[in-house]
């Protein structure tokens, strides 16, 4: 027998029985985001590798270990591991800073990261996300968080936890970084390999480490003292304070988490995640924050920005399965030409209709109808001659004969 080819590790088919849930995620995104004035943007799935090296940051796990990169005609190309860099590239390239602020964009689609596959972690996964450009005030941070919560509510997910933190600005953060490095120096040899590697380039990332022995180290009182200290400058503190004020006013519950630093290099001031207790160890459904220097770093004009991304697989695993709708009608008929004609008439009017395409016996057709449809439309020789249709309600077994023109009124 010829060898079967299987789906690659870390990738999955989205099968027909799952696609209703996916459509619901996407439909709700469109509905909820457009209420806030967001427009959809679709950027290419692959981009120049340099975009991610500069846009995501070369001290991140994504850029260091997780990118799918290949060469084509001497160009280094990468499958997008996330979509913020692509959206920012497009924002700059299409001169969107000319538009009146805020520019509000949303996206959905596949992302690619070479990670160890496990529950809630794939190599091709999907994100839905938003980016808002042009507003430096904390109103923007509050609005994107509110939008995330609203979207989750629209899906029936009400009990998720919003965590927030402020990373300050490059100025006040620098001092904090130094302090973190200092206090962790005596522990350097006890840190995990990743943390040792990040220590110089990205010391804040250490706080995010999931390795138990590192977490224990960070619990030490002298280290906690630095972590919990209020390092952010007055302006950053005001921004953070006002964000919390808006969230309080809007009754968005949140917890402050000083260990929340997020994996990407580009964030400043506000960072946030939304977590679920029902997801096991990959418990974050949403991650985001403010990235005021990214547009400039990628060659655009100075433009403040804030956004988030949600993992659609993780969202899906929190949602109940959706039962597919039955067909409105299944036509039971021994003359395919007549069945075709009636089916097309009804489909044109928007009904979901099927009939037997393979010449099965009448009784088999009826059996099939009762499995897949709400009504059986029986077209026997008599009905065809008299231009009538026997309509059988498959839930109650009631059957009436109606004029062909009247079928639609009787299957609604
Ligand atoms: P994690 O800490 O789980 O690796 P992250 O910080 O790398 O997350 P982001 O880049 O912020 O994640 O992406 C936002 C969201 O996308 C995550 O909260 C998660 O729901 C989802 N996500 C990220 N990576 C994956 C993956 N490999 N498989 C499935 N979903 C993912
Ligand atoms: Mg990750």
What's a quick, concise take on this entry?
The chain is an alpha+beta fold. It has 16 helices and 16 strands.
Characteristics:
single chain; alpha+beta; BirA Bifunctional Protein, domain 2; five-stranded mixed β-sheet; 16 helices; 23% strand; binds adenosine-5'-triphosphate
Description:
This protein has 412 residues and is α+β, with helices and mostly antiparallel strands. It folds into two domains: 241 residues, BirA Bifunctional Protein, domain 2 (2-Layer Sandwich), CATH 3.30.930; 84 residues, Anticodon-binding domain (Rossmann fold). The chain is 39% helix and 23% strand. The chain is built from 16 helices and 16 strands. The strands form three sheets. An eight-stranded mixed sheet has the order 1-5-6-11-10-9-7-8. The two termini are 50 Å apart. The model has no long low-confidence stretch (mean pLDDT 94).
